[in-house]
Amino acid sequence: MQDENFWAAQFERHRGRLRAVAYRMLGSFTEADDAVQEAWLRVSRASGEDVRDAGSWLTTVVSRQCLNMLRARSTRREDPLDTRVPDPVVASGDGADPAEQEVLADSVGLALLVVLDALAPAERLTFVLHDMFAVPFDEIAPIVDRTPAGARQLASRARRRVQGLPLTGSPDRRQQRRMVEAWLAAARGGDFAALVELLHPDAVLRVDTGGAGSKLVRGPAEIAGQAVLFRAGGRLARLALVNGGPGIVAVRDGRALSVLAFTLRDGLIVEIDILADATRLSTLELTL
């Protein structure tokens, strides 16, 4: 018999992985923590059950809770998906802390999380569990009420949507840093031409203010124009690692005003995701 003490120990042992699973499924640390907490309540009520693989079983419990939350979210969501930016993982950009680098090495880029937000709940769960955490389709199928073959099809559909986006941050941080430094210098100087040269022809800018100021901007000239328009904010900016990739944080009096995440393709900036929602930023743990 596996008692409550056993499950408490197992839950703590796997808590980091469970939170990572929930974050990648939900794109929100607050919701991820809620999912993990609810999973613990369910586990504590079922602590008398005998389970062969505690880690797999706990992952299943958390995954079911995330699926319920995703389905509930899809029925009540009012904010447009094309401007929503998931919660970022932010750390200093100097690379001095080995422990910090280890955590960020397995981060998922914000651009990928944005795409995951647009997937159907079952597609997102299947993709995250199989492609990011190597959970077999045989174990995923009962969670999404599909056969293993059906679960495989869900993952395949999701994979087509995220094609071309890396599952983890690129390790070439030197090139990334040079690009962001060049962007920041050009933005501060109001150098429109230099900004355009740094942008991919298919570049997208996504700004999430949590309100009416949210916007989606496409095209190098339009994005460069936005950067020049708001260049005064560049004086508050500092380099950072955002979800393991290149980024910028604008800080005033120790408080984050915005977080920018850059996605590079073919040596150019193809996506910039900005979170400028003061309420959400105030809840994040930023290591700066």
Automatic annotation (TrEMBL):
SUPFAM superfamilies: NTF2-like, Sigma2 domain of RNA polymerase sigma factors, Sigma3 and sigma4 domains of RNA polymerase sigma factors. One of its GO terms (biological process) is DNA-templated transcription initiation. Residues 11-74 form the RNA polymerase sigma-70 region domain. GO terms for molecular function: sigma factor activity. Signal peptide: none annotated. This is Sigma-70 family RNA polymerase sigma factor. It comes from Amycolatopsis panacis. The lineage of its organism: Bacteria, Bacillati, Actinomycetota, Actinomycetes, Pseudonocardiales.
